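Quick question, first post here. What does this chain look like in 3D?
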Amino acid sequence: MTSHRGKSGKRDDQALTMEAISELLEQHRQSLADDFKTSFNQLENKFDEVRSTVDEHGQCLSSLELAADDLSQRVGELESVCANLQESNSKLTAKVIDLEGRSRRQNIRILGLAESIEGFWTLPSQYEIDRAHRSLTAKPAPSQRLRPVILRLHRYQIKDLLVREAHRRGKLAYRGQQIRVVEDYSPDVQSKASMPSTEQSWQISTTEGSNHLSSILHGSASHFQAETRSGSARLMRHGNTSMTCLHLFHRK
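> Answer (accepted):
Ran it through. C-alpha cells below.
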C-alpha cells in the first residue's frame, strides 16, 4: 500500500515537472518571438529610413544630372562665343597692326643722336615735314640708351627716297658719332620678324659732298623752326630759320 502511494506521488511530481518545463519553454518562446518582432520592426523602420534616404539621393542625382546637362550646353555655347570672340579679336588685332604700320609708313627713326643736340639751321630746299620729336620716354641718364628721333615726312615717297639715299651713301656720322637711319616699324612687326633686327641701318659721313638731299627733295626754299620742349620737337613755318634732324644729310 505504501509502495503504491510512493509510485503515484512520484508520477505526480514528474507530471508537474514536465508541465513547468513546458510552461517555461512557452514563456521563453514567447519572449524570443517578442524580441524578434521588436527587432524586425526596428529593422523595418531603419530600412524605411534608408529607402527614403536613397530616394532623396536619387532625386538629388537626377537634379545634378539635369544641372550638368544644362551647364554642358551653356559651356558649349560659351566656347562657341569665345571662339568667335577670339577670331574677331585676331582680325581686329591684325587690322590694328596693319593700321599702325600704315600710320608709320611716312616715319623714319634716327638713332644715336645725343640728347639736347637740337639747334637752328637754314636748309636750302623745301622739306615737307609734319613733325619731329624724340620717342615719348623720360630723358635718359648719361649711361643709358639714347632716345631715337622720329621724323614724319609729309609724303611716303619722300621718306622712301631718304631711306634709299641713306642706303646708297653707306655711312652716316654726326659730330663724330655714328648714327643709324631706320624704318619706324611697329613693335609687333619687329617681334614677328625672323631676322635679328627688322630695321635697316646705315652710317653716314657728313664729309661726303653736300646738298645731296636737295637733289632728292625738290622745291623752293622753305624754312621751319622746331621748338624743343621736354625732349620733343615741334615744327612750324617761321621766317628764314629751320631746325630739323634732316640737317644731318648736309655738310656743316
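The longest strand covers residues 129-134.
The chain has two domains: 1-103, 107-249.
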